[in-house]
Amino acid sequence: MSSRTVIRGGLVITASDEIHADVLIEDGRIAALAASGTPAAEAFGDGRVIDATGKYVIPGGVDGHTHMQMPFGGTTAADTFETGTRAAAWGGTTTIVDFAIQSVGGTLREGLDAWHAKAEGNCAIDYAFHMIVSDVNQETLKEMDLLVEEGVTSFKQFMAYPGVFYSDDGQILRAMQRAAENGGLIMMHAENGIAIDVLVEQALARGETDPRYHGEVRKALLEAEATHRAIRLAQVAGAPLYVVHVSAQEAVAELARARDAGLNVFGETCPQYLFLSTDNLAEPDFEGAKYVCSTPLRPREHQAALWQGLRTNDLQVVSTDHCPFCFTGQKELGRGDFSKIPNGLPGVENRMDLLHQAVVDGHISRRRWIEIACATPARMFGLYPKKGTITPGADADVVVYDPHAEQVMSAETHHMNVDYSAYEGRRTTGRVETVLSRGEVVIDRREYTGRAGHGAFTPRTTCQYLN
């Protein structure tokens, strides 16, 4: 039996348009849009009616960078696929792209199968995977072709973390050359990890052990240098490049220069770099450990360059890099040695609201909000127009958003499985009211009605900016 829902009376906002329209949903897809109050809209009939008067109707968010259940630094990220995707839904995100990890000495297939096993039957919203390539060899390169064919079309490499995920320039070049052939997108953690390890060793030898030194040793110049090097290697390979979690104005400048030269180079930043700073890392009594992530938080003056990059499209995407570790028992592993603090912040629930606050504050427009949080990540990772927009034929991943509701972000009220909020006490304007995932209501007027197992694995095509 067909299921029909009509969302009436809201302002529909996509990356390209704003229109007061009613939205007809049938069998999990957007069936039609019609201007509110017109005969065409009245013809949608009744079915289930969701009243969006005075609200925004926006596409569900696409978070292209999460780490659920990720082992790191002797512990594991606190959110499971069940808790993490439920929290994402509460925050208006209806698709995540998580990272499966190849272990050194293991195959891509083993890593991907392990992540499928973690996610299958547990997700409240739809999910896809990138593949972390930790061990480049002839077999790995052949496997990259196979993964692209089955809808895992992006591969992450690390210039950081020697001895863990690190790839040297030769390994990076080989993977980029393969991506140039098979249409895959190389994603790069661009920091000079070899040099950083020297600075870490020297800082600890001087007795500089507090969390704030994490930000001081991971220098902006070493992010910029690695970004430059990654761009040049991609240029040699003839491959596209997507630089993750850009935090430093010097790195933005490298991306802007490459894009001005016509290269297929893309950049992502995260809410933590837009809203937090080294002031947080320097909080007393080891509280700064809550804010340890890599790339690190930067001095506040870097934020203007990131906002400008988002306005000029030198940065195209805002993802979360959601990788939560509890303060008690996890972040505390680094007491007396900042290098042992697990790297990562919680944020999958906060992204859409923080970016709406950026609209309120005048940093970006409403349509740009939807572009950087929904449409562009969907296009970047081969999910558009199934995801990231409201148009006939798209999945009915839709959020009714109250732009006037006020909230205070807090660990007391969030749904992420972590004992602190990186945005504790922050007042924001705008809040998710109702969320549909493939036409099924998962948040109903601030009540969770979803279920583990509704979310489906979603194969992806290749990056749609390269077609």
Annotate the secondary structure layout:
Elements: E1 4-13, E2 18-26, E3 29-35, H1 39-42, E4 48-51, E5 56-59, E6 61-66, E7 71-72, E8 75-76, H2 81-90, E9 93-101, H3 108-119, E10 126-132, H4 138-149, E11 154-158, H5 169-182, E12 185-189, H6 193-205, H7 212-217, H8 220-237, E13 241-243, H9 249-260, E14 265-269, H10 271-275, H11 278-281, H12 302-312, E15 317-318, H13 351-360, H14 366-380, E16 398-408, E17 427-437, E18 440-443
Parallel strand pairs: 1-4, 1-5, 6-9, 9-10, 10-11, 11-12, 12-13, 13-14, 14-15
Antiparallel strand pairs: 1-2, 2-3, 5-16, 7-8, 16-17, 17-18
Helix pairs in contact: 4-5, 5-8, 8-9
What does this protein structure show overall?
Strands 1, 2, 3, 4, 5, 16, 17 and 18 form an eight-stranded mixed beta sheet that branches. This protein has an eight-stranded parallel beta sheet with strand order 6-9-10-11-12-13-14-15. Strands 7-8 form a two-stranded antiparallel sheet. The longest helix is centred in the middle third of the chain and has 18 residues. Helix content is 31%, strand content 23%. By secondary structure, the chain is an alpha/beta fold.
What structural keywords apply?
467 residues; alpha/beta; 8-stranded mixed beta sheet; 18 strands; globular
In percent, how much strand structure appears in the residues? 15-25%
Q: State Rg.
A: 21 Å
Approximate shape: globular
Q: Look at the helices and sheets and give the structural class.
A: alpha/beta
How many helices? The count is 14
The biggest sheet, with number of strands, parallel, antiparallel or mixed sense and barrel status, is: 8 strands, mixed
Q: What does the average pLDDT come to?
A: 97
Number of strands: 18
Low-confidence stretches: none
Helix content: 25-40%
N/C terminus separation = 38 Å
